[in-house]
Amino acid sequence: MTLTFHRTLQPLSRLRHKVSAAFWLQSLACAVVAWSVMHGGITIAPPGAPPDGQSPPVAPDTIAPPGAFAPPAPDGASAPTAVAPSSAGAPGAPAPPSAIAVPAATGTLGATPGARSASAPVQLSVVPTLAEARLALSTIDVTVTRNDTLDRIFRRLKLNLADLATLRGVPGLHAMLDSLRPGERLRFKHHDGEFLGLERRLNESHTLKVSRDPTGLKADVLQDTLETRSRTVRGVIDHSLFEAVEAAGAREQIAVALADIFGWDIDFALDVRSGDAFVVTWDEIWRDGTYLKDGPIQAAAFVNQGRAFRAVRYTDPQGATRYYTPDGTSLQRDFLRTPVEFTRVSSHFTSARWHPLLHRIRAHQGVDYAAPIGTPVRAAGDGRIRFAGRRGGYGNVVEIEHTRSIVTVYGHLSRFAHGTRVGEHVTQGAVIAYVGMTGLATGPHLHYEYRVNGVFRNPQTVMLPGAGPVDARWREDFLARCAPLLASLDYPPGAMLVSR
Q: What is the pLDDT of residue 497?
């Protein structure tokens, strides 16, 4: 009897355990399904859903990019499965870690009897890849201060110094990074103290870019695209050339360049008058929509006391660049009209002048240009130094022999420039000495003489030899290139240069 009873209870006990296990499993499954429904991770399949294991057709516009969520399905339609494109762009390839689509748990809770639920995508949050992490990197612009070094900047930004050592080990970078200029800006990229990149502008058209890839640090020098814009302005002088040029909308350096171009024919310190007029066309250099600097003057016109002068810039096929008149005559002369930047002419060329120290009348066979002590004195033209030293009333003096017939003399110098000695060849514009007041001088100035075959000539009025016309081989090219430049001098169209 007892044996029979126990044999009867054993099946009932096993059944009770099975029912209990099924109850808890069902409860757990319901909880999971409910949580998924609340969080949008599962969609209850409507009638007509495809059988398990089959996916509905995916239209091209339903292919989700990496990391994208599948859009919710409209009422009565099955939810499309997010398919990540492969690296080659083909649909159906495995999704990247940041956009993994996996089927959700299935169930029939609340479903129409006889219908099967569809597989719905569930987006899993995973650790981002290195490329994604770099999207969140920090970018910092650093202005270099005096005595700044990369080491100091790395420490200031709390970057890993081991990365600095690696950076300096990249071939060719040492010279580009260790010569920092106060005021320049460096752009650093980093993430949690890890150095990821650096940008430094080397000059107006080149940028150094250091970046990190899976193989380590690499450096590239990128060439920026510069844009050239042509500008033309015109003006009339009231007081000075500089004021008139700035009033016309140009910068000071344009006035300086304009005076240099016409400086062989016009003495801008003495000859310019109120009512003189100008037109100037030049290039502006821009980068990424930002103005960088003024380029060279391409064409200019100047009316001085009723006399009109015009100039165009021309570079011949051999690369030589000069300014010419419209007929191809070079504006450049073999000699500078004035070899020093001066404040005023303290004594002119004359056959009879009362000498302030000797107290008697004597010829003044040169021009005295007053200027501060130490102002550079330049060679008026190419030549050979035939004397450099002290000589009587001249004080410290330099004599340059340019041709067999022409000699220039520079007196009352404070000191000589390095390399100024007898026998040395100099080029036009080279600094040979500095203004002083040695010898018979009452104040700092340069005494300048121009001699032709031993005869003293007035440096301010003597006819200076020219540099020659455009080579006959390039004349047609010159005329073709200069025509539009000369046309720009009539800006606005039809306007004429006149003196007031």
A: 46
> For the stretch 20-41, what's the b/e string if a residue is b when 16 or more beta carbons lie within 10 angstroms of its beta carbon?
eeeeeeeeeeeeebeebbeeeb
With respect to residue 181, please indicate whether it lies within any of the assigned structural domains.
yes
Q: Per the confidence metrics, is the pTM higher than 0.90?
A: no
The pair of structure tokens assigned to 470 is 């455009």
Tokens at 358, concatenated: 């000797």
Separation between Cα atoms, residue 67 and residue 85, nearest integer Å: 11
Sign, CA torsion 354/359/361/363: negative
In a domain, 431, yes or no: yes
Structural domain boundaries, residue 313: 256-332+468-500
What DSSP line would sit under 337-404, residue for residue? S-SB--SEEEE--EEEEE-TTT-SEEEE-SEEEE--TT-EEE-SSSEEEEEEEEEGGGEEEEEEE-SS
Read off the pLDDT of residues 314-367 as tens digits, 9 standing for 90 and up. 998 888 889 999 999 998 888 888 899 888 888 888 866 655 655 666 688 899
Q: Is 293 in the same domain as 148?
A: no
Residues 446 and 481 in one domain: no
C-alpha pair distances (Å), 119 with each of 50, 65, 66:
9, 20, 20
Whole-number pLDDT of residue 25: 66
Q: Is the dihedral of CA 263, 333, 345, 414 positive or negative?
A: positive
What is the DSSP annotation of 226-250? Answer: EEEEEEEEEEE-SS-HHHHHHHTT-
CA–CA distance, 170 with 186 (Å, rounded to integer): 18
Using CA atoms, how far apart are residues 303 and 294, in angstroms rounded to an integer? 23
Identity of residue 226: L
Look at residue 312 in the predicted model and tell me its pLDDT.
Answer: 95
Residue 242: which residues within 8 A CB-CB, separation 6 or more? 252, 255
- Based on the structure, what is the number of domains in the chain? 3
Q: Is residue 217 part of a domain?
A: yes
419 lies in the same domain as 361 = yes
Name residues of the chain where pLDDT drops below 70: 1-136, 351-362, 491-500
